[in-house]
Structure prediction request, 362 residues.
Amino acid sequence: MKKIAVIFVYAFMITQSQAQIKEFAFTESAIHSKFIKAHTFYHNDGTSVTIHFFHADQLDSLLLIQNLTQKVWSEIQSVVQQPDYANIVKRVDYLYLSDSSKFRVRAFPQYGDGYQYKDGKASATKLGKDTLRIILQTQYRTDVKGNRHRQLYYLTFTVNDIKDLAGYNDQLLTEAIKTAQQQSLVYGKHAYKSSFPVSYNWIDQRWVKHESEVKKSRKSFIEPDIYVGFQYVRSAWVPSAAVGIQWVKGSYIGERNVFKLLWEPHFLFVRNADDNLRIRRNDFITFRFVEYGAQGDGKVHVPTSFSLGYLAGRKGDIFEKNTFKFSVPGFAYESLRIEPEFFFHDFFKQFSPSIRISLHLD
Prediction:
């Protein structure tokens, strides 16, 4: 009987140990969930704080926690300041619970030893930054079937050294949470939207848009394409739009070839004999090819771009029957395009140049 009791206790301890391991392992998978989004706030010294959350209500909960970093530091400092953790890159995962807390320290290997030369002598130093990830109190939600699910949310601090947390200014964290709250009002309470911003630039005070990780990883896919614009053609400013599909071949954020098939209506506003305003719509069916290089955002560049279109629907007299149009490469800045376009009919009769300005809705 005693042996059975010992085996039972031993099995219980193993189960509890595995449960704790799985508890932290769960955070690894949840923080990379496609449903969770992150706001990262970068500081001038290269450090940062990231807020990972599922729902904007979790931001409200963060503001209710007072002196969070001081509490965490007071509990972990006796461990992370041990000699074994000096001069190595480490990450602390801290599980914040209402009645207790637990944490683990993970040391990461580094290649070679780092030294700092000062006052005539070399002393060992750490290579890389330390990380503190605070896993906050789980929040429960109930689905339509009455089942309860837990959703974790996190704070991740990237610091030059873990002991820097002793003097961390909680006001910076409060400002970051409030800034994230303001942005959530624009995008709705739920974070999982494709255009949700991923980081905030303190210096420029602007958000950097998030691109879906799924979209980034795909190498070939088809998606819709929409743009609006206007152009100066045949001595008139003509608004235009386009709706169609595009086949993207290559890395979405790097070098890629894009093949597009578009319906492009052009709108001309005229007045009839009664002085009433009328719209004359001319529809082009257009094939477009664009080759993008590894060009970063925020820079003016000239992507390789050609198009050929045919007038499939005609109203008014701005375009003749059997009108074709083609474009050549122009300038691009993020979603804005400026490119030359040429119209003609019946083997280049009434050949006329134009300039088109368009905004692509990616």
Q: What stands out?
A: Residues 2-22, 189-197, 210-214 have pLDDT under 50 and may be disordered.
